[in-house]
């Protein structure tokens, strides 16, 4: 049985997500919230392979784009029910992940990074080469908005999109939490720590990495689909360096290998990036400096900082509750009555 | 007695070269079920290379065959060799540092068996901890353990899936005499429970205390095999350790 304390934060997390749009009511603020949920989902999915499994996977942006293009093609070319496009986009990203995984079979480290980055870039050429289907360099425009009955998710400052994004974020956070605490999650950490030892304990690197690669791709595909519905257009920009650096910033700032860190990273990077909208190239300089400062002072990112703060607080509390031992100096004397 | 016991592991004419260097040169040995077999030799003699060839991590023999429990395994993947019941430890006290003590055992228990991954067996995990006498909070991080406790945990992880054969690569390396004694007692208990073991060791007192038979490797070749007292007084062995003329 799971301890109550282990799960006590989840209702609070759900309540915060539910209440946020009531506090942030202006359209721009709502859009930021929606972007935070989408980036949070994508960063969480990427962190599974990059942070927990230690795979230099740069194909995640490719899966995100494939999800978006799958949705764009399905709803504009085939007339598929838009809601159905969300899971189908996840499936198409999983199929693509089987191709992207091929270099992981043999290569290690930075070579996997290079090969998977090439995969994402090849997606651009694939899209441009199939212009009849994908719109080529014009992209796909006129993707219909999602609606529930007569109510468009765009109504009331896109509140429907916010709740869809928040539901996805909550579900993916829960998925990552459960997955990383499972035997599969622990085996990923074991492989990351010491592959030879993990193999000698009977763990298959290829099998475990493939599973986590596919799960991450499915989530990224759904996030891509969400992005397509939110913007109404899809272009090859989605495979670009902009998304890649943005997402990496979120993961490293938040703390790679932490369950909640990428969400904190998504919040900070999205808000800072928006606040510096008019700063031009200085925006990237400020974000890069912020990441350097955080990683220099706290290599495990914001999640590591939070963990250290909680540990320090607990230790202080523990010391305060404990009577001084003989070896500890008495630093205060109670007034005698 | 182990002298009549069936052969559990056999290496036959196993060789491995790295360029012009013959690291292991036509080595043959047999380990019988239930025995403790020692492997000694000077630095660079090829002991760890031989262990790596037996377990497939990360190399395979150029020639020769390795038979475990009646089946040739020299072409099997290291994972399948491990799943067949041949577990090993490493020279450096390797544990999974990101995991807790108990999580180290859980993943070893879940994946170490013969078939597909199973749910970790909590009773076996606790039993393995008891066997190696690793006390304290089992949920504490493994990266904070002392050297001897890391070795205890490494051995417990190898034992948790009840291997038929345990290969220990220099288990006493880096330990002070008191910890060496503790390790000898621990390995003695494990051997007493019927686990077959092959131990590579520089600390010869460990092999004298535990091994029923042993072999000495020098320059990739076996130069002596037999009971430890005889092998360690063999002039070829003395010469290999102390240099030419030392045996006179």
UniProtKB/TrEMBL annotation, chain A:
Keywords of this entry: Cell membrane, Membrane, Transmembrane, Transmembrane helix
Membrane-spanning intervals of the chain: 7-24, 30-48, 55-76, 82-102, 109-128, 159-179, 210-229, 241-269, 281-298
Broad class of where this protein is predominantly found: membrane
Region (Disordered): which ranges? Answer: 316-337
Q: Which Pfam families match?
A: BPD_transp_2
Where does it reside? Answer: Cell membrane
Q: Which GO terms describe its molecular function?
A: branched-chain amino acid transmembrane transporter activity
A single GO CC term for this protein reads:
plasma membrane
What's the protein called, per UniProt? Branched-chain amino acid transport system permease protein
Q: What is the lineage of its organism?
A: Bacteria, Bacillati, Actinomycetota, Actinomycetes, Streptosporangiales
UniProtKB/TrEMBL annotation, chain B:
List, alphabetically, the PANTHER family matched: AMINO ACID ABC TRANSPORTER ATP-BINDING PROTEIN (PTHR45772:SF7), CONSERVED COMPONENT OF ABC TRANSPORTER FOR NATURAL AMINO ACIDS-RELATED (PTHR45772)
Q: Which GO BP terms, alphabetically?
A: D-alanine transmembrane transport; L-alanine transport; L-isoleucine import across plasma membrane; L-valine import across plasma membrane
> GO terms for CC?
plasma membrane
Q: Which Pfam families match?
A: ABC_tran (PF00005), BCA_ABC_TP_C (PF12399)
Entry's CDD domains? ABC_Mj1267_LivG_branched
GO MF annotations for this entry? ATP binding; ATP hydrolysis activity; L-isoleucine transmembrane transporter activity; L-phenylalanine transmembrane transporter activity; L-valine transmembrane transporter activity
List the Gene3D superfamilies.
Answer: P-loop containing nucleotide triphosphate hydrolases
What's the source species for this entry?
Nonomuraea wenchangensis
Q: Which domain of life is it from?
A: Bacteria
Task: Work out whether the entry's keyword set contains Oxidoreductase.
Answer: no
| Transport among keywords | yes
Q: Which PROSITE patterns match?
A: ABC_TRANSPORTER_2
Q: Please name the InterPro entries in this protein's record.
A: AAA+_ATPase, ABC_AA/LPS_Transport, ABC_transporter-like_ATP-bd, BCA_ABC_TP_C, P-loop_NTPase
Q: What is this protein called?
A: Branched-chain amino acid transport system ATP-binding protein/branched-chain amino acid transport system permease protein
Residue ranges of domain ABC transporter in the record: 9-244
Q: Which UniProt keywords apply?
A: ATP-binding, Nucleotide-binding, Transport
């Amino acid at each position: 049985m799971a301890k109550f304390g282990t799960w006590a934060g989840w209702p609070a997390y759900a309540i915060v997500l539910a209440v946020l749009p009531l506090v942030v009511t202006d359209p721009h603020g709502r859009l930021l919230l929606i972007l935070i949920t989408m980036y949070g989902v994508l960063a969480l999915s990427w962190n599974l392979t990059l942070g927990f499994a230690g795979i230099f996977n740069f194909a995640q942006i490719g899966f995100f784009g494939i999800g978006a293009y799958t949705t764009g093609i399905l709803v504009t070319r085939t007339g598929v029910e838009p809601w159905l496009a969300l899971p189908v986009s996840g499936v198409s990203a999983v199929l693509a992940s089987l191709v992207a995984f091929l270099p992981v079979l043999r290569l290690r480290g930075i070579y996997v990074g290079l090969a998977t980055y090439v995969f994402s870039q090849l997606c651009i050429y694939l899209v441009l080469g199939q212009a009849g289907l994908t719109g080529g360099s014009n992209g796909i425009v006129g993707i219909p908005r999602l609606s529930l009955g007569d109510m468009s998710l765009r109504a009331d400052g896109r509140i429907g999109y916010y709740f869809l994004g928040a539901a996805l974020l909550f579900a993916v956070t829960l998925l990552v939490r459960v997955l990383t605490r499972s035997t599969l999650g622990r085996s990923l950490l074991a492989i990351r720590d010491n592959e030879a030892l993990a193999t000698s304990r009977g763990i298959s690197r290829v099998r475990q990495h493939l599973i986590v690669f596919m799960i991450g791709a499915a989530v990224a595909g759904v996030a891509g689909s969400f992005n397509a519905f939110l913007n109404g257009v899809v272009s090859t920009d989605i495979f670009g360096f902009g998304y890649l650096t943005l997402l990496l910033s979120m993961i490293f700032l938040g703390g790679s290998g932490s369950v909640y860190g990428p969400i904190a990273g998504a919040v900070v990077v999205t808000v800072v990036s928006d606040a510096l909208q008019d700063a031009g190239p200085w925006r990237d300089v400020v974000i890069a400096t912020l990441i350097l400062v955080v990683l220099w002072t706290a290599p495990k990112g914001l999640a590591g900082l939070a963990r250290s703060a909680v540990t320090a607080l607990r230790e202080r509390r523990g010391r305060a509750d404990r009577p001084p031992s003989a070896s500890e100096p008495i630093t205060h004397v109670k007034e005698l009555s | 007695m182990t002298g009549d016991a069936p052969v559990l592991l056999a290496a036959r004419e196993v060789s491995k070269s790295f360029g012009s260097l013959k690291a292991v040169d036509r080595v043959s040995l047999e380990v019988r079920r239930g025995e403790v077999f020692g492997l000694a030799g000077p630095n660079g003699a090829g002991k760890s290379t031989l262990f790596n060839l037996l377990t497939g991590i990360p190399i395979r023999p150029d020639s020769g065959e390795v038979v475990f429990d009646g089946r040739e395994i020299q072409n099997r993947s290291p994972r399948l060799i491990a799943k067949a019941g041949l577990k090993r430890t490493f020279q450096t006290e390797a544990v999974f540092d990101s995991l807790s003590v108990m999580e180290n055992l859980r993943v070893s228990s879940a994946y170490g068996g013969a078939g597909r991954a199973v749910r970790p067996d909590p009773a076996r995990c606790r039993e393995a901890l008891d066997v190696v006498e690793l006390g304290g909070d089992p949920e504490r991080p493994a990266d904070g353990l002392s050297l001897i406790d890391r070795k205890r945990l490494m051995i417990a992880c190898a034992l948790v899936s009840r291997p038929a054969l345990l290969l220990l690569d220099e288990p006493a390396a880096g330990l002070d005499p008191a910890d060496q004694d503790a390790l000898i007692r621990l390995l003695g208990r494990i051997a007493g429970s019927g686990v077959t073991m092959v131990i590579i060791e520089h600390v010869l007192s460990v092999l004298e205390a535990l091994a029923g038979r042993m072999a000495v490797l020098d320059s990739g070749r076996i130069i002596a095999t037999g009971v430890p007292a005889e092998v360690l007084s063999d002039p070829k062995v003395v010469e290999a350790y102390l240099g030419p003329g030392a045996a006179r």
